[in-house]
Design goal:
88% helix, mainly alpha, 5 helices, Four Helix Bundle (Hemerythrin (Met), subunit A)
Length: 146
């Protein structure tokens, strides 16, 4: 049986580590590495959010009948994180460590609060309510981007 909670929590931690590497590269002034890590981090975050929005959230909504409940909040938070990810790009291009630090701090707070809600509430609910085939599909998309 596939359980989403440990797999998606591990993906959160992986993204957090990539983010920390990005921040470290900026602090060291290694802008080439920072840009590379930013692209990887952005790709991984977008894949993670897309997997939730395209597979898990609709399955949750179908089972619960709640389209305006917790998944709606998660989607709104995803949108805020996407906007912050986009704001990072020009700061990286300008090699503006100060601007990047401000955006990164805001993004980090969003990610921490968001991840806690998913890991402690939503993922366990999904593990209980969503069909095994849906959980397998989500894990496959998360791992392969397919």
């Amino acid at each position: 049986m596939v359980e989403l909670t440990p797999i998606f929590t591990a993906d959160h931690k992986h993204c957090d580590q990539r983010f920390a590497g990005l921040e470290h590269a900026v602090a060291e002034g290694d802008w080439g590495l920072a840009n590379s890590l930013y692209r990887q981090f952005q790709d991984e975050m977008l894949r993670h959010m897309a997997t939730e929005e395209e597979i898990l959230f609709p399955a949750f909504e179908q089972v619960t009948g709640q389209a305006q409940g917790p998944t709606r909040v998660m989607c709104m938070e995803h949108e805020q994180m996407r906007e912050l990810l986009q704001e990072m790009s020009p700061a990286l291009a300008a090699q503006d460590a100060g601007a990047l630090a401000g955006i990164a701090e805001t993004l980090l707070i969003f990610m921490q609060q968001h991840n806690m809600k998913e890991e402690q509430v939503l993922y366990p609910m999904l593990d209980e309510m969503v069909a095994e085939s849906t959980r397998q599909e989500a894990v496959g998309k998360l791992a392969h981007g397919a």
